[in-house]
Amino acid sequence: MDTDYRGAVRRAILDYILLDLSEQERLGIIMPVKPSNLAGRDGYPWHDSVNKGKEFMANHLFITHPIMRKILYDFEHKYANFRLIDILGLRAIMPVTMETFLKHVQDSSKAGAELLEHRWLSDCTDLIDDMREAVEEWMPADSVRTQNYG
User: Fold this and answer.
1) 75 and 14, same structural domain?
2) Cβ(131)–Cβ(70) under 8 Å?
């Protein structure tokens, strides 16, 4: 019991020093800065790439070609409810731990990416194949002109 009492007194003194800023200054104790939890707003390696891509598309992408308008129209109608992260599935498993949340985001992102890769890209290639004449009239006739565009 004496050991428990001494341990409790030591913890109380330590808590007093750690919680009181004036005591920290008086004793010259410098507390380390706690790392802030940015809740996913920083640290993703793709974040800068996405922002640069958005900026490039806003400044350089023009959808005047008929095939681009058709692809955009089809995407807006066929995939209007598409979300990369399954929000309804996330609500169904609430409350979640951070591990469960991360696993759900990874799984739903992977499923969404597979859907885009297999279905949407297939739809795009079918549209391009159907509108081949419109695509070919915009393409250069020889490889020298193609290299000059690159």
Assistant:
1) no
2) yes
